[in-house]
Amino acid sequence: MAQDVRKLTGSIVALVTPFLENGEIDFKALDRMVDFHLENETDGILVLGTTGESATMTDAEDVAVAQHVVNRVDGKIPIIGGAGSNSTEESLHKAKSLQMIGCDALLLITPYYNKSNEEGIYRHFTTVLDQTEIPSILYNIPGRTGCSISEANVVRLAEHPNTMGIKEASGSIAYATSVARHLSDDFRMYSGNDDMIVPMLSLGGSGVISVWANVQPKQCHDLVASYLGGDYKTALRIQLEGLDLVHALFSEVNPIPVKAALAMMGMAEETYRMPLCPMAANTRADLERVLKEAGVIG
Fold this sequence. Notes:
The structure is a single chain. The protein is α/β, with parallel strands linked by helices. The protein has an 8-stranded parallel beta barrel, surrounded by 5 helices. Helix 8 links the parallel strand 7 (188-191) and strand 8. The two termini are 35 Å apart. It has helices at residues 27-39, 59-73, 88-100, 118-130, 142-145, 151-158, 173-180, 197-202, 217-228, 232-241, 243-249, 256-264, 281-293, and strands spanning 10-14, 44-47, 79-82, 105-109, 136-140, 163-168, 188-191, 207-210. The longest helix is centred in the first third of the chain and has 15 residues, at 59-73. The chain has a single domain, classed as TIM Barrel (Alpha-Beta Barrel). The mean pLDDT is 95.
């Protein structure tokens, strides 16, 4: 592997899972996307996240996709496997499976729908942390899950030897600032919002877990590398220049627009798992226009 996953910095793409028209996994498209990221200096790959539509995939499909990406990458960059579930036992099962097939780290989400109380959320995470050997990134995205990881729980969980960081996607700078007080070489923060990468880096963040990177991987890599290298002006320029595209990629619920974008780029079919479905005509037209303006498509 290029670097110790616990010290991971840069742009980690939240990879789309491509499907064929018949609903099966499109492994040829998956190869194209992985190669695209390796060629464009993406620093890590997250499989089976929200963007990967893992909520509608079977356990067998999860393992097949993760194994395929692990094999294709062949140790060149770290692979993080999404082991999220609202069932703690299911999350543990996923985590053990992803560890066994060679993922370098895990992404663990708060228990959506159930929500739980403070102690339940803590136990949800520690159940997986205690019974796995690879490090985990906590995932805070209350807009999706209906619950947040409190600062007190962040402090408790950061002390666990298998916790390597947090993906912060609340969209709240106030919350991120509170979390930033507890960062260290052993507990890192990654932006979960593509429109807030520079602000999160300014708080001591180590990078981004990005939807945008599916479409412009080199720009996302360069943004983080520039900032961490001290070239703040370049990082800010890339952030601001990419803002219209980022907004277009979130004009409908993720990953609907990013899959449409990848289809326009010829990377994969625009096929979703229900209840997700193709974009509305107006948002699709705006996305196509912005992609053309950005030079992503002709």
